[in-house]
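Record filed below.
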Amino acid sequence: MDRRLYEQDFYLWTLAQADALRAEAARPRSGANAIDWELIAEEVEDLGKAERNACFSLTRNILVHLFK
């Protein structure tokens, strides 16, 4: 994965990583200690969404303050 994407657009990077983790989850596994790739993918995706939503919220608050 291109590290520049991480540095330029964290949200898109989390989506790409979640897709990669889901692709890994589709591979057959053996053993009781298998990593829950799908759950990790969901967590990474949610992290990106939370960061994006926080950014939108802060931007909105700044704009509301400027308009007052």
Remarks:
- Residues 37-67 form the longest helix (31 residues).
- The radius of gyration is 17 Å.
